[in-house]
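Hi support team,

I'm opening this ticket because the web form for multi-chain structure prediction keeps timing out on my end. I have pasted the exact lines I submitted so you can reproduce it. The total is 1204 residues across four entries, so I didn't expect it to be a heavy job. Is there a limit I'm missing, or should I split the entries? Thanks in advance, R.K.
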Amino acid sequence: MGAAEDGAVRQLAGDTLTWLTDPGRWDVTSVAGIPFRTLQHLGVSVSAILLACVLAVPLALHLAHRRRAEALASSVVNIGRAIPSFGLIVLFWLLATRTGWVGTQFWPLVLALTALALPPVFTNTYTAVREVDAATVEAARGMGYTEAQVLRRIELPLASPVILAGIRIAFVQVVATTAIGAIVTNGGGLGRYVVDGFARGVAGRPTVLAGALLLATLTLLADGAFGLVERLLLPDGVRDDARRADVANRVGAAG
Amino acid sequence: MRSPFRSRPVVRALAPIAALGLLLAACGDDGDPEQTPDAQTGDPDDGAATDIPDGPEIVVSSFNFPESTILAEVYAQAMEDAGYPVGRELDLGTRELTLPGLADGQIDFLPEYLGSALVTGFGEEPPGDVDSGADALQAAFEADGVTVLTPAPAVNSNAFVTTSAFAEENGVTTIGDLADIDGGITFAGPPECEERDTCLLGLTDGYGLDVTFESIQEPAARLAALEAGDVDLILLFSTDAPLADERLLQLEDTEGIVPPENIVPVIRTEVVDAYGDDLVTLLDEVSAMLTTEVLTEFNLRSSEGLAPDQIAGDWLAEQGLVG
Amino acid sequence: MTGVLAQARPLLEWDWVGRNGELLWELTRQHLYFTGMAVGIGLAISLALSVVALRWRATLTPILGFGSVLYTIPSLALFALLLPVLGIGDALAITALVTYTILILVRNIVAGIDGVPREVIEAADGMGYRPARRFLEIELPLAMPVVVAGLRIASVTVIGLVTVTALIGRGGLGALILRGFRTLPPFPTMIVVGTLLSVVLAITVDLLLLGVERALTPWARRKTAP
Amino acid sequence: MPETTAAPVAGTATPTDPMIALRGLTKAFDGQDRPAVDHLDLDVPRGEIVVLVGPSGCGKTTTLKMINRIIEPTSGEVFIDGQPTSARPAHELRRDLGYVIQQVGLFPHKTIAQNIATVPRLLGWDRDRIRARTAELLERVDLEPELASRYPSELSGGQRQRVGVARALAADPPVLLMDEPYGAVDPLVRGRLQDQLLELQRELGKTIVFVTHDIDEAIKLGDRIAILNVGGVLEQYAPPAEILREPANDFVRSFLGAERALKQLSLQAVGDAELVRGPVVAADESATAARSVAQAEGVDWVGVLDGERLRGWLWTDDLEDGRRVGDHATRDFRVMVDHATSLRGALDAIVTSRNQVAVVVDDDRYRGMLFIEDVARRLTLSGGGRANRRATPAVSEDRA
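Hello R.K., no limit was hit. The queue was backed up. Here is the completed structure from your submission:
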């Protein structure tokens, strides 16, 4: 790298730092500020993951308990991975402009992200229940548990590490992909900085870089925070399974 | 019975992967990924011209919206037809990306917009008329080694658009009328608009409006936001097809924050020097035939799903500029 | 409300698809080129990292941790972070895509090699194999199903992500989606076809690799209960 | 089974010229305060099966693996045919030492033929020679030729273990190292595999080092047994009969267990014992004569001979005066043994028989009987009878 380029990189690093440390950027009242964009980002992401959980978890629990739709459970995650997030976001936006049902700014993005989060949540939940030791379930039935009790008191607690691992993967994926929404709407949270900075060319590069750093930080923090949530939520006996499930499933989450 | 002895497993294991790699590499080679698929490289030998001097490849570039890409294609194909070697770096991005590219020689040719080039590119005052604008632009580009060619009659300027319903409700026909709306207005433009005198700064500083800016990169998304009532005003181009729809209204720019935006080809001077007046004559000839109606037609055809290179090629053939 | 956008064109115009076969093929090929380059380079890097991780076990956790961080960084952020270093171009797109393959591939290569039964390794040693030949002739073929499974996941993931590279001016079918969206009014067929083709491409590549795996591991299919 | 040019059992070398010699062999693993194997000296004579046996942690497997350098010794030396193993690259050494392990370790991605051909291929044999050798070995371990193109997953556990032995023998190594090879197969199959190994050994005369934790297996297979204690201490190294007769110390005694005496019996064959004629009479003898024979033998029954065949037996109370013995109905001897049956087997026959006797036959010909006191007498005598037990019927006939 030549001296000139070296200087340019140092200049960029300095500008980025200046951008990030500007008190105005941290003004909680400014809609262009980092706190607002972060909250906007999390608002979209959390809405999407909650919606995905509400839709996928009960269905997967039910189907897995009844041993139904196994082929669906194993293939849905692969198909989900094959769907390009960018295409899906644009497609949901397009459908929203045509139906006029949900506006064009918030919900199309949230719904597209929900669709992306459904497969990993569904498959992990399904697999988690199916992998509960059959002997344990049999023993529970033998002691007179009803089917609903078997599901709620045996299968669900024992499956919870893997279920949470699936939700965690999906959540990180959603947080990462929310940024792409900045291309389609005025939302997109922290992705806004990257897209806006990009449009401003060389002058926007500090913004792009700062946005990218904020985005990466938010995603890693979201991942770490979810790890803590897992520790708090999980019963003592299965906590160790969570780590293993997480490592085993950490695939297909790039957005 | 199958022979129990077969080829070595490693060889069997690696062969298809290697083959796949080669196949993909081959694909990459002949489908040059540097090139936007919209742009089919014409064969330089196509043209009948034999008196083209040897010279560098002319890298044609464009902004990241269809009209600009179509215009770039028009000039590129015209040059190719005449026998000049042409390369393409289309859809490059905003002016913030194209002008540095032009200055450092990564690209050689760009169909510019006169007023925006001056105001946004060089921070100059908006020009009063086309001729003085062209002179000012030439002066600004001089240091970068770029030559400004004769502007075309075609104009495509920033258009500040609202819905007819909103205009009627608030009694608005000009941009200035927006000042009367209580609580100010929300305005959506592309990201770069926020810092431009011809855009947001024109509204706030030129008209003194109370504007909340929403950054929405793509015009379709801005239009969607306008129609959904998320914003009151959006930025479009005056040649965009939906402006013909009666449900939309382009507000009049009484203060003249939008400068004359004639299409003006700019080209690196070293390219002009290498190929001489014939090249300039050819490009001027093309520019002369580009009118605002033509631009509107281009945008319409684009919205019908036609590729930029096809729209450009059809038009050039119609005009008898290639053959 | 029926706005200007709401009465736009139909979602899928087959005659447009019919007229633009050449364009679609070109974009698909470009899409595959990016995928192939990213997965190919990713595989080479991952193999090297895996050899390191297998040779010096202590490095496995840091390598996977690094891969995990790369994997978690949003693609948009990664493009942006690499932009000052690489500038706009194929290198930027491919480098960003490569980073997403590392975690998947290293993990599967290491898991595949680890999954080779200990007794098979011991038998190979006892027969007088030398380490390099043992790796190529015994461990790698036996790890193949898991490695190919990783390749499948990596390829499908990358095919989905290539669409995002359209945002930096490169990007196969993503460019089509973007063009359909950028046109005013939007051209839905481009968005729909771009998305669908990307899905079809991912599934096709996935099935092809599955076929490759089947062809490479004839022993895995013929099982009779002893 | 085709005849092969098997090496002679004893070989030409003298016992003072061992095939394998361990000298001061020591292995100390990192992080363990005492060595797994501590200064072990051991000679493995040519053409013999030496079994290393002992409780877990006694270093028997470690010792075996130091021979082919899967584990490198901390100190000490292994000599094969007088040459130190450390003098050559490990992979070359290993190609000369057949190696069989408990989980077999067949290569799952290679066919049975390819598995067997592993070492010849590493040694660079030509295709035709490999092909011929593979076919020969399949036959030798009693596997159908059709199995050649199968994959290991398509075979049963016993078949796989036989492939493992064939693979180890492929390049005709003079030495075979076997690490608990039959530990994972069920007892019935294990017995058959053990018999097959003895049969192979008789034909091939390899020098075999065999590791097991099963003392019965050691006694059955070993020409010599090395009993190791925790930490690789050699407690006793001797032929099985000697170990059973004279355990060197309490450790060996307790390792052999309470059934030591019975185990000793299992080393001797019926042919080693002196048979008695027993209370038998010819069919044409009178009832009176039969009664007096029974009385002389001190039993209340009598066996009936039809020429050389023992027809059966009857109670003396059932004998009717004036009739010949052969005119009475007889009961069958339900259990009969032959020369090759171990004395332990004969004892089982005695205790389950109503007559408290083991009837010894050779095919249909009556040879004699063994009573419990005849067997008991063998317990105190020294038994060098392994060779006899293993001998073919032709040999044992001489003694009968």
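A quick check on our side: Chain B has a mean pLDDT of 83. Let us know if the file doesn't open in your viewer.
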